[in-house]
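Re: [ENG-882] Designed sequences occasionally contain unexpected residues at chain ends

Forwarding the minimal case from QA. C-alpha cells:
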C-alpha cells in the first residue's frame, strides 16, 4: 500500500486512527471534515529514514545531471497527467481555491521542475578561478560544488507544494537525497509525491516524506547534513539554533510584513487591483502578501474607495468548481484567532473597519476579507505578520514618510511601489530595506526563478531560486592542480637569508609606495 493510501484508508474508516502508533488527523479546513491520518514519526523512524536516504544518495549522485533531469521531467509529466487528483488533494487539505492550487502550486512546480532540470548543470558546473597571485603562476584553481548528502526540508501549511516540494527540486538536482517534513496540517499532497517520485524513476529512498509535528522536524535536523526551513520567524530561530549546535548549514525562508507604497502619480486603478489581489489571495496566507499599504495624501481617498468597492465584490466560501469563489478557507485554525486579535487590537486603538472584520460562517474556518483605515504603527496589524485576508491602509504626507514607515519593521521579505514615473518608483523601491521589491507590481518577482529570492532582517537567511538557490545545497571544494611541477620550488626548505631578503625586496617593490590621494 502506498504512503498516501495508508493515510486515506483511515479516512475511509470514519477517520478513526488505527490502534497502536500515534496518528495525526488531517482536516479539510473548509468543511471541518477529517480527510486522513498520518503517522507522527518519532526520532527512531526519522533516524532510520535518513540512514536509508544516505545509502541511496551515492547512486543518485552517480546518475549525473542528465539522469536526474530525466526523473524531474518525468515528474513534470506526471503532474500534468494527474493535475485533477493533485488539485483535489491540495484544495481539500489546505482549503484554498482551485485557481490558487492550479496556478500558485501546480504551475509553479511544473515550471520549477523544468527550470532546475535545465539550469542545475550550468549553476553547478566547475568554475575555473583565475588567481592574481604570482606565486601560483602555472597552477590551476577550480571551484567545485558537491552535494551535502542528505538534505532535510521542513515546510509550512500555506503552500504545501510550492513551499515544500519546491525546495526539494534543486536539492535533488544537486545530487542530494531529500527527506521532506511537510506541516502536520497539510501532509497529504507531499505523501502522494513520494509515490509519484518512485513511479517516475527516482531510486527508492532518494525522496522520502516524514510526517509528524514539531518533534519530527527537530529529529530531522538532528540527522541530516543540511536543513532548509520555510515557516515562521519564531520556529526559524529554533531551527537555526539546532543547526548551529550540529554545525550544519541552514537556509531560512521566514515571515514578512510586506509594505506597498502608492505614490501620488500612481495608476490608482492598478494599485488598488494589486492591493486587493495580493492581500486576499489564499486568504492572505502568503508570506509575500501585501500586509500594509501607505498611500500619499492626494490619491488616498480614491485608492480607498476603489479598494473597498473591489473587496466587497469578493466571493468567499468552500472551494468547489473553478470560478465559484475568490477566497477559500483559513488553513490553520489558530490563525483565525491571530487575525481576529490583530483586527480587534486595531479597532481598540481607533482604526475603522470598512469591509469585513470578523470570522466567516462555518462549519469550516473563514475570515472575511477585511479593509481597515485609520491605522498606525502602535497597532499589531501594521507591525506583526497577520497572515490573513486583511488590508490596512495608512495615509502619508509624502514618499519620505512612506519609506520611513515601510522600513519601520523587523522583517524584510517583499515590497512594492506604485508610480507612473517609473524612474521615481525605482528610486523609492531602492530605499526599501527588503530582500525584494517590485515597481508597479507585486509578488510577480517570485516567478523569476533565475533571480535569488530571500528575506533580509528577520525574514530569513539565504535564498531560494537563482544560482544561490541550488548552490546552498552543496559544499564547495576548491581544487588546486599543479601540472608542470618542479622538483623543488623557490619557497621550499631550506630557509636562507638570500631567499628571505629577495622576498622582502619584492614586497617593498610591489607595495612599499605610499598610496597617492585620489583627486
Ligand atoms: P511554523 O513555523 O509554525 O511551522 C513550519 C514547519 O516547521 C512546520 O512543518 C512545523 O511542523 C515545523 N516545526 C514546528 N516546530 C518545529 C521545531 N521546533 N523544529 C523543527 N520544525 C518545526 O510555520 P507555519 O507552518 O505556521 O507557516 C506559516 C509561516 O511560514 C508564516 O510566518 C509565513 O510567513 C512563513 N512562510 C514563509 C515563506 C517564505 O518564503 N519566506 C513562505 C511561506 C510561509 P508542524 O506544522 O507539524 O507543527
Amino acid at each position: 500500500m502506498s504512503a498516501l493510501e495508508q493515510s486515506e484508508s483511515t479516512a475511509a474508516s470514519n477517520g478513526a486512527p488505527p490502534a497502536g502508533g500515534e496518528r495525526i488527523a488531517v482536516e479539510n479546513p473548509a468543511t471541518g471534515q477529517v480527510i486522513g491520518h498520518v503517522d507522527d514519526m518519532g526520532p527512531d523512524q526519522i533516524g532510520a529514514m535518513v540512514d536509508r536516504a544516505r545509502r541511496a544518495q551515492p547512486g543518485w549522485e552517480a546518475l549525473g545531471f542528465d539522469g536526474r533531469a530525466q526523473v524531474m521531467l518525468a515528474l513534470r509529466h506526471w503532474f500534468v497527467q494527474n493535475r485533477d487528483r493533485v488539485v483535489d488533494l491540495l484544495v481539500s487539505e489546505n482549503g484554498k481555491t482551485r485557481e490558487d492550487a492550479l496556478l500558485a502550486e501546480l504551475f509553479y512546480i511544473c515550471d520549477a521542475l523544468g527550470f532546475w532540470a535545465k539550469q542545475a548543470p550550468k549553476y553547478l558546473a566547475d568554475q575555473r578561478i583565475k588567481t592574481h597571485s604570482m606565486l601560483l603562476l602555472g597552477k590551476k584553481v577550480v571551484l567545485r560544488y558537491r552535494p551535502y548528502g542528505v538534505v532535510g526540508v521542513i515546510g509550512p501549511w500555506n503552500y504545501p507544494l510550492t513551499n515544500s516540494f519546491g525546495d526539494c527540486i534543486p536539492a535533488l538536482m544537486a545530487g542530494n537525497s531529500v527527506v521532506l517534513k511537510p506541516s502536520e496540517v497539510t501532509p497529504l499532497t507531499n505523501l502522494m509525491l513520494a509515490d509519484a517520485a518512485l513511479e517516475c524513476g527516482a531510486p527508492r529512498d532518494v525522496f522520502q516524506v516524514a510526517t509528524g509535528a514539531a518533534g519530527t522536524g527537530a529529529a530531522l535536523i538532528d540527522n541530516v547534513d543540511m536543513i532548509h526551513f520555510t515557516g515562521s520567524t519564531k520556529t526559524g530561530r529554533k531551527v537555526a539554533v539546532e543547526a548551529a549546535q550540529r554545525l550544519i548549514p541552514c537556509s531560512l525562508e521566514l515571515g514578512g510584513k510586506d509594505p506597498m507604497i502608492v505614490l501620488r502619480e500612481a495608476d490608482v486603478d492598478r494599485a488598488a487591483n494589486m492591493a486587493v489581489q495580493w492581500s486576499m489571495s489564499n486568504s492572505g496566507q502568503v508570506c509575500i502578501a501585501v500586509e500594509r499599504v501607505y498611500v500619499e495624501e492626494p490619491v488616498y481617498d480614491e485608492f480607498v474607495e476603489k479598494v473597498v468597492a473591489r473587496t466587497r465584490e469578493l466571493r468567499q466560501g468552500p472551494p468547489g468548481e473553478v470560478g465559484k469563489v475568490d477566497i477559500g478557507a483559513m488553513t490553520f485554525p489558530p490563525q483565525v484567532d491571530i487575525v481576529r486579535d490583530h483586527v480587534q487590537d486595531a479597532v481598540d486603538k481607533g482604526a475603522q473597519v470598512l469591509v469585513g472584520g470578523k470570522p466567516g460562517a462555518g462549519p469550516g474556518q473563514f475570515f472575511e476579507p477585511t479593509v481597515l483605515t485609520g491605522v498606525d504603527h502602535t497597532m499589531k496589524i501594521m507591525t506583526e505578520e497577520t497572515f490573513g485576508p486583511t488590508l490596512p491602509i495608512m495615509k502619508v504626507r509624502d514618499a519620505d514618510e512612506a519609506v520611513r514607515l515601510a522600513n519601520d519593521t523587523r522583517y524584510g521579505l517583499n515590497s512594492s511601489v506604485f508610480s507612473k514615473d517609473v524612474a521615481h518608483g525605482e528610486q523609492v523601491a531602492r530605499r526599501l530595506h527588503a530582500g525584494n521589491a517590485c515597481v508597479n507590481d507585486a509578488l510577480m518577482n517570485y516567478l523569476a526563478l533565475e533571480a535569488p529570492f530571500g528575506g533580509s532582517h528577520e525574514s530569513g537567511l539565504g535564498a531560494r531560486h537563482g544560482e544561490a538557490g541550488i548552490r546552498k545545497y552543496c559544499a564547495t571544494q576548491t581544487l588546486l592542480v599543479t601540472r608542470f611541477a618542479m622538483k623543488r620550488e623557490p619557497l621550499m626548505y631550506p630557509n636562507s637569508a638570500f631567499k628571505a631578503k629577495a622576498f622582502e625586496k619584492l614586497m617593498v617593490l610591489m607595495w612599499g609606495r605610499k598610496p597617492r590621494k585620489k583627486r
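QA comment: On inspection the terminal residues look reasonable. The pocket of NDP is lined by residues 154-158, 163, 181, 183-185, 213-214, 217-218, 230-232, 235, 238-239, 253-256, 287, 385, 387, 413, 455, 460 (CB under 6 Å). Proposing we downgrade this to a documentation issue.
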